[in-house]
Task: inverse folding
């Protein structure tokens, strides 16, 4: 089987997982909107949580994968690892965009403000910016090997940076207490809400895998095509 | 091998600083830039609402950060013009020596800009730093080392790309967040004459960042230099 | 209703999320198809 055929099979697998996850998402939507009780203090807007929290988890997962796989690449130098890392970064950007739009939409009605510079939000914003920087760097490098090596370096640096960002903001806030915003309480969720949340997390994790596999297959196909161009195949 | 690494480091730093005539113009540009930033920020606020000492730490570090980026920019523009990085690869210098040499050269450049800007800053903002000078210098030194280490690594990558002038800030700025925030807070405490014990929190964050990222940049530089 | 009237935000968020996700999924599909077509 050629590399292309293998990649197409992988793409098909990724497509199926993605399709299943999208159906799952529709199910989550129905369950969250119609069959999950409304939270009394926050109102309907609280339901954004069932999308926002799992997508943030998925974005974080994507980020971890990019960072860790980048590190492994630097030791093993297997091109496939570079393709996995970069695929995870692109998928991560998509999830991060959802996270950064749903977050403020939840924050405004519930906390009274679109944005607040707390440790978690600031870290997720930086994860998005680091992803974008990573992809921009890749876009600007044309040599395969250089691109893989340099991306891996950025991936590892970004991975180490984010905990520092978190601690910096946390320290800033604890040493300079700001007026306490009305924050949604986190009591233990009643079981109906918990089930919705956990199901959503499962769906988004599956979606991440589906997207990652498809994006990886695409990366392999693009790689094969680039190689053909280099070899002079029409 | 330590002796040859050291001499290689010094030689590379010297090359960067002395061989390039552009250093002088870049140096004066960075200096003027720092002065301008300090001045503009001073006037860009309501004096009845924001005191000199409230404004000072932020102003200082904005000036240092941007002047520092000009310095890094200069450093890699040299590389670009002459493809010097290829020449460096041919020398027997180890990647460690190349990295340290470049960092050292950048540190001297940026360090001089900072040292010259500092009295101007003290003057403009009426900052009482005489007693606290050693601590302030330590903070400036630490933050600058952290900034330059990561900046040197990223410059070395970015020199290969097409839009390098834009790429350097885009890639570097996230990494400046922890050291600059720590440095600003430390400067604020120093300027407010807080006791040294209060500084330990931010200082440990800054020191931790510098140690970890300097080491990381040093190790990763080898992957950048390979052919 | 005893709870605040902020359903608009919920609708907006759910719609935006769905759009971004579906657009991304479709983009992946389209790009893979483009790779298939380039080789006939």
Result:
């Amino acid at each position: 089987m050629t590399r292309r055929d293998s990649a197409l099979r992988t793409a098909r697998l990724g497509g199926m997982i993605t399709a299943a996850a999208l159906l799952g998402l529709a199910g989550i939507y129905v369950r969250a909107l119609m069959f999950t009780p409304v939270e009394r203090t926050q109102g309907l807007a609280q339901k954004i949580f069932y999308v926002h929290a799992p997508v943030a988890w998925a974005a974080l997962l994507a980020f971890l994968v990019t960072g860790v796989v980048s590190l492994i690449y630097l030791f093993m130098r297997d091109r496939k690892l570079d393709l996995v890392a970069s695929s995870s970064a692109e998928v991560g950007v998509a999830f991060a965009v959802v996270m950064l739009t749903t977050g403020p939409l939840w924050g405004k009605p519930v906390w009274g403000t679109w944005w607040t510079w707390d440790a978690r939000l600031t870290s997720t914003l930086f994860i998005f910016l680091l992803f974008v920087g990573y992809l921009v760097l890749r876009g600007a490098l044309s040599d395969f090997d250089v691109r893989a090596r340099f991306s891996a370096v950025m991936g590892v640096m970004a991975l180490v940076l984010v905990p520092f960002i978190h601690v910096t903001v946390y320290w800033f806030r604890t040493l300079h207490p700001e007026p306490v915003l009305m924050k949604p309480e986190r009591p233990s969720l009643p079981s109906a809400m918990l089930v919705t949340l956990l199901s959503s997390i499962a769906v988004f994790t599956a979606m991440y895998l589906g997207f990652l596999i498809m994006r990886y297959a695409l990366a392999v196909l693009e790689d094969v095509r680039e190689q053909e161009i280099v070899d002079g195949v029409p | 091998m330590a002796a040859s690494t050291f001499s290689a480091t010094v030689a590379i730093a010297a090359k960067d600083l002395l061989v390039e005539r552009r250093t002088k113009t870049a140096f004066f540009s960075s200096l003027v830039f720092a002065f301008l930033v300090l001045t503009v920020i001073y006037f860009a606020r309501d004096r009845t609402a924001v005191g000199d000492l409230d404004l000072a730490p932020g102003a200082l570090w904005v000036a240092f950060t941007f002047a520092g980026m000009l310095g890094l920019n200069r450093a890699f523009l040299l590389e670009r013009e002459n493809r010097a990085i290829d020449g460096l690869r041919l020398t027997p210098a180890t990647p460690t020596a190349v990295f340290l040499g470049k960092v050292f050269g950048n540190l001297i450049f940026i360090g001089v800009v900072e040292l010259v800007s500092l009295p101007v800053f003290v003057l403009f903002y009426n900052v009482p730093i005489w007693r606290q000078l050693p601590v302030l210098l330590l903070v400036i030194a630490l933050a600058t080392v952290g900034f330059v280490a990561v900046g040197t690594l990223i410059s070395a990558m970015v020199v290969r790309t097409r839009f390098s002038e834009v790429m350097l800030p885009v890639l570097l700025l996230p990494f400046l967040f922890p050291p600059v925030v720590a440095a600003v807070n430390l400067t604020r405490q120093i300027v407010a004459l807080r006791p040294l014990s209060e500084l330990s929190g931010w200082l440990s964050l800054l020191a931790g960042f510098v140690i970890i990222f300097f080491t990381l940049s040093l190790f990763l530089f080898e992957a950048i230099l390979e052919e | 209703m005893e709870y605040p009237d902020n359903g608009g935000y919920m609708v907006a968020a759910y719609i935006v999320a769905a759009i971004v996700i579906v657009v991304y999924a479709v983009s992946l599909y389209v790009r893979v198809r483009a790779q298939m077509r380039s080789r006939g």
The longest helix of chain A spans residues 191-231. Chain A has a mean pLDDT of 91. Helices of chain A lie at 3-34, 49-76, 79-111, 119-139, 144-175, 191-231. Chain A touches chain C at residues 4, 8, 11, 14-15, 18, 22, 25, 29, 33, 38-45, 47-48, 51-52, 55, 91, 94, 97-98, 101-102, 105-106, 108-110, 207, 211, 214-215, 217-218, 221-222, 225 (CB under 8 Å).
